[in-house]
Amino acid sequence: MNSSDSRLPLRCWAEIDLGALERNLKHIRAALPSRLKYVAVVKADAYGHGLPQAAARLMHAGADLFAVANVTEATALRELGPGWPILVLSAVLPEEDRYLADYDLTAAVSSPEEVDRFNELGRRTGRPISVHLKIDTGMGRLGVWAPQAPELYAKIRASEFVRLDGVFTHFSSADSDSKYTRQQRRLFLETLKKLPGLDRRRLIIHADNSAGLETLQRRSPVNAVRVGLLQFGILPHPSSMLAAVHVEPLFSFHARVGLVKQLPRGTAVSYNRTYTLTRNSTVAIVTAGYGDGIPISCSNRAQVLIRGKRCPVLGRVTMDQTIVDVTDNPGVAVGDHATLVGRQDAEEITVTEFSSWAETIPYEILCSVTKRVPRVYRTTLGT
Ligand SMILES: *Cc1c(COP(=O)(O)O)cnc(C)c1O
User: Fold this and answer.
1) Mean pLDDT of 329-335
2) Share of the chain above pLDDT 90, in %
């Protein structure tokens, strides 16, 4: 929150390294065929990293296009400047239509009704509305069902005030099922062949999210990639081939030690007594809880770095405070820095490890850091 005195010390904060974001984009691009355009996915406040800060850095680093979830995010992004096409990935609500024209946005279309609406809007405003045709190849969410794509394509082509700028699909299981992903990719490519007069040089044709890059084909009409997670330095799964790209994490999550105290063996710790001390213990009370974005599912499971050592969370995570065991970490003192995600000396807790304690995925962790937590930008220059 930003209404408070900026000199107040931070109790819980996220640090974001935009230098790492820039290097990640460059490494990803270097690993891909140079003909591919780069669509930077910055939905959900750039996966919690801050939309204007992340997008400005990605513009500087050479992103070709941007993709966001909705018109609200797209208008915020457009405020940064003209020139970069902005693709709205989710369905546009009829009341939002006019902002497509006002802010020069590109809509993803899945249905003839949308084409009619956008054509009408273009006619009214006197300028064609830019669209990408989305094809559902087995995700079951947005997009026209693949066999019906040629018909929708023909309708777009026949609509004077709708301009087709791209065609795309989305993989449902690229991080878990390469066979199904290949099947989706094949259906996408076969569907493209059924779209007469498709201008592959002018249109942006894209399918791959971060995990999709693992099954990317070198020779293909696909001429762009749509990257979110990987540019933020997180691999789609632990055994990912993309480890060779050498991305760095840019997000870290921090708090402080507010109190250190001794408790006798047998004491129950935190709400509902889910943990009982098995020895005389020293505990540290860390100044962050689920009100900051430490999921309650981390109770009795997560670890926190203090003075370079892993300290286990004891009992339930509470709204504002989390109790950790520092019995084996004797120097711990009030004011110490506690790292929930990030590095201290030789130890590192990744977003992926943290998300496994919470039994969720890195995407959800990044989206769950609450508005109480200031984002502090601290760029590194790298090597
Ligand atoms: C979120 C999203 C992406 C980016 O996915 P990552 O796995 O983060 O790379 C790409 N395409 C669509 C349609 C999305 O919704």
Assistant:
1) 97
2) 96
The number of helix segments (H) and strand segments (E) in the chain equals 10, 20
Q: Is 117 in the pocket of ligand 1 (CB under 6 A)?
A: no
Catalytic residue, from 37, 43, 134, 155: name it.
43
Q: Is 43 a catalytic residue?
A: yes
Q: pTM of the prediction?
A: 0.96
Q: Could you give the C-alpha distances from 284 to 142, 287, 310, 314, in angstroms and in order?
A: 47, 10, 13, 10
Atom of ligand 1 nearest to the CA of 89: 13
Pocket test for ligand 1, best of 188, 226, 355 (most atoms within 8 A of CB): 226
Closest atom, ligand 1, to C-alpha of 236: 7
Q: Give the pLDDT of residue 139.
A: 98
How far away, in angstroms, is 273 Cα from ligand 1 center?
40
Q: Could you tell me the residue ranges of all domains in the chain?
A: 32-232, 251-378
- Give catalytic status of residue 271 as yes or no: yes
Mode of pairing for the β-strands spanning 12-16 and 375-377: parallel
pLDDT tens by residue, 169-201? 999 999 999 999 999 999 999 999 999 999 999
316 touches ligand 1 (CB under 6 Å): no
Q: How far is the CA of 171 from the centre of ligand 1 (A)?
A: 9
The residue assigned the tokens 């992103």 is 63
Q: Under a CB-based contact definition with an 8 Å cutoff, are residues 153 and 74 in contact?
A: no
Q: How is domain 32-232 classified at the CATH fold level? A: TIM Barrel (3.20.20)
Inter-axis angle of helices 18-31 and 51-61, nearest 10: 40
Read off the pLDDT of residues 127-153 as tens digits, 9 standing for 90 and up: 999 999 999 999 999 999 999 999 999
Q: In whole angstroms, give the CA distance from residue 35 to residue 205.
A: 12
CATH tag for 251-378 (out of 3.30.565.10, 2.40.37.10, 2.130.10.150, 3.40.50.150): 2.40.37.10
